[in-house]
Design a protein that fits this description.
This protein has one domain: NAD(P)-binding Rossmann-like Domain (Rossmann fold, 3-Layer(aba) Sandwich). 43% of the residues lie in helices and 15% in strands. It has eight helices and seven strands. The protein is globular, with a radius of gyration of 17 Å. It starts with 10 loop residues before the first strand and ends in a 7-residue tail after the last strand.
Length: 254
Amino acid sequence: MRNPFDLTGRAALVTGAAQGIGAAIAAGLAEAGADVALLDIRPADETAARVRALGRRAAAIECDLSGLTPERAAELVQAAVEQLSRLDILVSCAGIIRRAPALEFSPEDWNAVLDLNLNAVFYLAQAAARHFVAQGKPGRIINVASMLSFQGGLLVPSYAAAKSAVAGLTRALANEWAAREINVNAIAPGYIETEVTAGIRADAERSAAILSRIPAGRWGQPDDLKGAAVFLASDASRYVHGAILTVDGGWLAR
């Protein structure tokens, strides 16, 4: 009997794969047997080395997803297909954050965050789903949401808006595509030690306040997202559609 978590023979496209959560998820998928196309604005050499060390193929695609168009999204999906000979999984992890009081929040910061964190997620999902439908094969789409898909946060109105929209988009696409055997789900990380949270962690008072509320008693590590990603990418989740899986050390349960 096949291990339902085994991804051998499958290929994934992971955005934001050069570091942090994206790099960890890419490595986790490779550990489960998948080949991985690594998309990022910066070189993903370290992630590629991790994937290849596991005996899997790694394809690097350098691209700025800001201002992504549907046409360009289709080209990126096709590039992944050409380099890995197939595509079964899309993980949209690339994102940015801008912090400022809402009264002072600039249009530039608002639009930049919505563009990358929401528009690019939709266009890539659309392009991947079109590929899956054309091939007549099942597919997995995993969006990276946030615990701010459920909360408002502080000083991050565009990020909270985008991640709340990602949760809604995930459910909407799942409703449409489940009958086509395309599973659309999302992972909602809590406070994870990444570049995005570096400023908060450097603030001793703020960091201590956050840590005191996390039931697990520690900040999350990027590798803590691996299991959730493999589950949602695998046959183990074949009847899971439109789920927002929180990986937050219990933060939202508090």
